[in-house]
Structures are given as C-alpha cells and as structure tokens.
Amino acid sequence: MPESPEVQALVDDLAARLTGRSISDVDVVEFRVEKTRARPPSSLVGERVRGASRHGKHVDIAVGDSQHLVVSLGRHGWARYRDEGSDTPATDVPAGDAPPTLIAFALDDGEVLEFTDAGDWVSLGCWIVDDPIEVPAIAKLGPDPADSEFSRADFDRAVAGRRKQVKAVLHEQESLAGIGNAYSDEILHTAKVSPVGHAAALTPDELDRLFEATVGVVVQSIDARRGVPIDGLKAAKVAAMRVHGRAGEACPVCGDTIRDFSFASTTAQYCPTCQTHGEVLALRSS
C-alpha cells in the first residue's frame, strides 16, 4: 500500500511534470474508479493543471480555476507515464508484468498519465471536487506527522490513553494521516515498542520514544524518497525497510530474528528482543 513518503514523492513528480500543461483527453477504462458521477473525469478535458499536493495517502491534482482531481491509490494503486499512441508504459517493468491501467489522462504535449491498480479488486478511486475536503476520507483525516506544524499535543491527542493496539492507532487515518503497515512496523521498531500493546498502557518514556520515531521515520523517509523516479519508489521503499518484510532476517539493532505476526487481515513484522521483551507474538495459521 502506498504510504505518505512514496505518495509525497509522487505528487512532487506530478507537480513538476504537469503544472502548466492541459488535459487533452481522458480514458476511463474501469468505470468503478469514478466516485463523482455528476462530475466525471472527462469534465477536465481542456483544463490546465495548476499543481499537485498530498492529503494523507491521497493525491490532489489542482486543475482549472478551482477544480481538484483527487485520487485515492487504495491498496495497490499507482501512477505511470507513457507516450500517446504507444502501448508501452515508460517504466522498467516488463509490459507483461505491468499492472492494468484503470484511468488515463492525455496531456497537450502527447504524454499520458495513467493510474493503475494491481489488486484483485478495484481500490483506486477518483473524485472531481471544488475542495478536497469534499472527499469523505480526506475530511476525516487526522494530523500528518510530516507537517511542519505537527506537534506533541497532536500526537498525544491521537495516541495517549487509547484503549487500542498501538499499531492499529498508527494505521488509523482519522488519528494520524499517511501511515500504513510498512511504516508503522518501522516506527514501532525504532521506538522499541510492542505493536500489540494498548496505547493506554504506554509509559511516559515509551510515548516519548514513539512520538520521536513517528515524526523521524516519516520525515526522514520522505526526504530519502525525494527525487526517486516514480517507477523506482516501491523498490526504494522495500530496500529501506529495517524490519518490515524482513521476517527470518537478523534485526539490524540486536541480531535477533525478525518475526511475522498476525495483524488485521495481513501480517506485519517485529523484533522480539527490541520490542516485546522476548515474547513471540501469534501468527495465524494458514
């Protein structure tokens, strides 16, 4: 799932490449991506792009005088470019392995911006709105740890005293925007906090460490992804992970074996020595 560091790198790229260019055509391949049927994506034809920004994990492309194309990337959504008239995406991924395009925006210079979805079900969604806050998921977003104005008070309101597993709180977009499975694993490992403990049970020292790790991991990851081509962001994210996706490998801090544990409908990773005082967490049997 794309998370704030990769989505920020994507919107930076979109802003640099699209600003000032006009949309010449729109091809909706999968109608289910249209979330504002009264204002279809085709209504953007002829409009000029004013810029791009991020709201949590959502992409916001400002178009025309006051419109916004908001894209929720969902679990497996992403973007790529190709030349108009070519069936080959401008990417290093072999054509047979490339995810399908669900919606495409042709630009006035012949380049095409495609939004793709590699999942078994359509999780990509597009809204045309006057204000991004009209998108329900954006309206409910909590504060973003990458925001320069994000404070300890914001963090405490989101986390302290919650009778909920810490990892689940980090995932909850209404509490903290932009964090998903991968970066929550990295944050909790950096903070040396158990992912399954309740936030209400955190000690003052653990809360301090978790706050510093939440801001530090997100901000540093955004900085690290800056300038990476959008077709290389997934690989850059995977390469940067210290515990997420590293089950069976040695913890880079203590050398213990990183393990999987069950979380919601997926798995996540942690270090028993660094995070759970040696306790091995349950992994759902297949």
Could you explain the architecture of this structure?
This protein has 286 residues and is of the alpha+beta class. The chain has two domains: 4-139, MutM-like, N-terminal (N-terminal domain of MutM-like DNA repair proteins); 152-275, Helicase, Ruva Protein, domain 3. Helix content is 27%, strand content 21%. A four-stranded antiparallel β-sheet has the order 1-6-7-5, with no helix packed on it. A hairpin with a 2-residue loop joins strand 9 (259-263) and strand 10 (266-270). The longest helix has 22 residues, at 204-225.
The total beta strand count reads 10
Strand order of the largest sheet: 1-6-7-5
CATH class of the largest domain: Alpha Beta
Low-confidence stretches: 90-95
**Protein structure class:** alpha+beta
Shape estimate: elongated
The H/E string reads HEEEEEEEEHHHHHHEEH
CATH architecture of the largest domain: Alpha-Beta Barrel
Averaged pLDDT: 94
In short:
Pfam families: Fapy_DNA_glyco, H2TH, zf-FPG_IleRS. With 286 residues, the protein is an alpha+beta fold.
What distinguishing features does this structure have?
286 residues, N-terminal domain of MutM-like DNA repair proteins, Helicase, Ruva Protein, domain 3, 4-stranded antiparallel β-sheet, 8 helices, 10 strands, DNA-binding, Znf_FPG/IleRS
